[in-house]
């Protein structure tokens, strides 16, 4: 995991406008912010600056962002008593570290845009496809790919039904029952090779 802790960043912070830089880290870049709430935290200048940035971000987030660890019962302005916390008087540093790892292992929730957009439907018709290509809303490439896949499935449906009914042939002959396992393994391997390329195809950088 990547951790921002000032003692690890001494050289990077050298000469930097700290209020602006730290506000950017706490308010925009961090996935979570751990606050070690204590008497010292409430008293120090820099932790109070940090706290204002954290609270601004927390107001924008619907999901958990502040992860308080209490060292004592000092009241921290803006840190609600109803916010779940770990008590360092009851949990060892190792317990807290394990809790952090568990928290980070959970899937990250995408940050929601301030305005909700109407979802783009998969076209599934020539007219809808033409409209998608003309308007090109966000994510249109994926919708076009879904349209192509859907049409490919529709085109192969009759062949699938023929196979179910026993009419499908391979090179003019039926696949014999004793050869079917080998035939199926070959087809699955070919399909697996195609599927393995899908993440590369859908990679955002490749799409751009």
UniProtKB/TrEMBL annotation:
InterPro entries, per database record: TIR_dom, Toll_tir_struct_dom_sf
SUPFAM superfamilies per record: Toll/Interleukin receptor TIR domain
Domain TIR: residue ranges: 2-95
Coiled-coil positions: none
Pfam family, one: TIR_2
Protein name as catalogued: TIR domain-containing protein
Organism whose genome encodes this protein: Cryptosporangium japonicum
């Amino acid at each position: 995991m990547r951790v921002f802790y000032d003692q690890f960043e001494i050289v990077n912070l050298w000469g930097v406008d700290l209020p602006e830089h730290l506000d950017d880290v706490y308010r925009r870049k961090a996935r979570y912010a751990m606050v070690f709430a204590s008497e010292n935290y409430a008293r120090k200048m820099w932790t109070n600056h940090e706290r204002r940035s954290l609270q601004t971000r927390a107001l924008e987030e619907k999901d958990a962002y502040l992860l308080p660890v209490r060292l004592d019962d000092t009241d921290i302005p803006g840190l609600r008593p109803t916010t779940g916390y770990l008590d360092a008087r009851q949990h060892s540093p190792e317990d807290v570290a394990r809790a952090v790892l568990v928290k980070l292992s959970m899937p990250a929730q995408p940050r929601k845009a301030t305005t909700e957009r109407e979802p783009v439907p998969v076209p599934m018709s020539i007219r809808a496809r033409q409209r998608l290509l003309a308007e090109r809303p966000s994510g249109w490439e994926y919708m076009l790919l879904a349209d192509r896949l859907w049409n490919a499935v529709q085109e192969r449906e009759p062949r699938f039904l023929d196979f179910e009914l026993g009419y499908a042939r391979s090179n003019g002959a039926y696949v014999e029952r004793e050869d079917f396992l080998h035939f199926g393994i070959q087809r699955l391997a070919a399909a697996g090779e195609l599927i393995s390329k899908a993440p590369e195809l859908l990679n955002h950088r490749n799409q751009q």
